[in-house]
Amino acid sequence: MDHSQAEKPADLFAQHLALSIPALLLGGAYLSQYGFGLYPCEMCWWQRYPHFAALALAFMSFFAPPRSLWIALAGLSIFISGAIGGFHAGVEYGWWEGLTSCSSAVPADVDPMEAIMSAPIIRCDASPWDLFGISLAGWNFLISCGTGVLIWALLAKSSKAS
Asked: What is 125-147 written as a DSSP string?
């Protein structure tokens, strides 16, 4: 294990950010979904996938060298989620059109018509909730892009100090 890398304060902070921010954002997304009925549209789901990847990559940084590579990849994944969030926010604010219509997958053992009729219609171009005029996708953009850049800056600072 590369203990010298993990003992640097900047690396430790980047590593903990890479693990905690995606966990908190996913936790908030699922709390919003199941606790408050803010069901995700297709583009909302797209933003979650890179956070799952970031969690796995950050987790790997605790066990597999080189730690800084895993942390940097987690930071990239977090940033990608933010970029998707920025695109989604632009669709919500009407700045541009989305790439797809809102859709959902239907399991093979379920009657498609019944699934369609019972599923809530979640539009990708409508924000179900905002804070200070910023939608959830907009907040994901700000938090995730900022976190990704901060992680890379911390790793760069740490590598210059070596």
From this structure: TS-S-EETTEEHHHHHHHHHHHH
Strand, coil or helix: 29:
helix
pTM of the model: 0.81
Q: Which residues of 90-111 are buried (b: 16+ CB within 10 A; e: fewer)?
A: bbbeeeeebeeeeeeeeeeeee
CB neighbours of 66 closer than 8 A, spacing ≥ 6? 2, 5
Number of H helices, E strands in the chain: 7, 2
Question: For the domain 3-98+124-161, what is the CATH code?
Answer: 1.20.1550
pLDDT tens digits, 62-84: 998 899 999 999 999 999 999 99
Q: What is the pLDDT of residues 85-95, one digit of tens each?
A: 999 999 989 89
Cis peptide before 66 (omega within 30 of 0): yes
Among candidate residues 29, 22, 83, 82, the one with its CA nearest the CA of residue 52: 22
Amino acid letter, 27: G
Task: Name the residue ranges covered by the structural domains of the chain.
Answer: 3-98+124-161
